[in-house]
Amino acid sequence: MRRTRRRVLELGGAALATDGGGEATPTVTATPTAKPTDTPTPTATPTAAPPGDRPATDLSGFSEWLPAPSAVEFVPDTGYAFLGIATAQLVELRDALGDGATGSLTEETALPGLDTLADASAALRFARTAQVYEADFDRATAENDFEDLGFSRVDTYRGFTLLSAGDTRFGAVSDDAIVAVGRFSTEEEVDKRPATEAIIDAKTGNGERYAEAVPDFGRLDDALGSAHVLVARTHETGASFEGATGEGLSTHVGAEESRVRASAAFAEGADGAALADWASDAESFHGREPSTTVDGRVATAAALVPTGEIAEFPS
Hints:
There is one protein chain. The chain is an alpha+beta fold. It has two domains: 5-39 and 47-52 and 211-226 and 234-309, no CATH class; 62-86 and 110-208. Helices cover 20% and strands 24% of the residues. The chain has helices at 5-18, 87-92, 139-148, 193-203, 210-213, 215-224, 272-279, and strands spanning 82-85, 120-126, 130-135, 152-157, 160-164, 170-173, 177-181, 229-234, 244-252, 257-266, 291-295, 298-306. A twelve-stranded antiparallel β-sheet has the order 4-5-6-7-3-2-1-8-9-10-12-11, with helices on both faces. Helix 1 (5-18) crosses helix 7 (272-279). The longest helix is centred in the first third of the chain and has 14 residues, at 5-18. The radius of gyration is 19 Å and the shape is globular.
């Protein structure tokens, strides 16, 4: 039975609001589910034509860390959720953002080698329990911090020190990155070393990456553009919007205005109308009417919003 417009919007909005659901990956807390109606949404005039390009951020190149889903035993081959935050840059922009937007980024953390998340230039979370932090830190201190948390050094791999606390929790440390898989908690009682090595393989160019194995993830990455905060995932066709294979949301923070984009990839023709209907009520756009474009199989809704109205980010 064909889904109704209401059901299509409910599914698509929920996917954009929760990273697709079902994974222990933090979400952009300011992102809502859709508020659909059964009648067509009137066409409104966008507040401004969002700029096509914005300066690169510390998230540039994030996809190099992401291995092909098939290389991670505990995620489906169709894809997994990803969250990336340019943490240090967001903290630098805190005076322009709403009250408390970056508060959690400056709180003390138990992460090995880092005092706060703001010490990292980029924080990535993906594939249920994987985390990567790019930062300027003391490698020996980070390795010792892992040991203080009950990890033991077990090997080296492509320039990384591998540490484990049993098979289900693994860490890796290089000169400029910290990797953890199952570091805090895990529901998958499987050996995390293969996933840890797959992440390192992807970053070092020795393994297939997410965007190579699932081209629609690469299409979403291109559509979402440069960002300080980005969430995206692919999934089986139709798990969100009818015919959709993945969704994502990005925010590029500016001193006065921030660009927000929501994109959805489709197996065949992009359903720009479904995305536009969802976006017209989405709190992510802070009351601004986004403009919607279609490029091949990807639809994107975008708007400029006042930076001071953005008061929440994930941590």
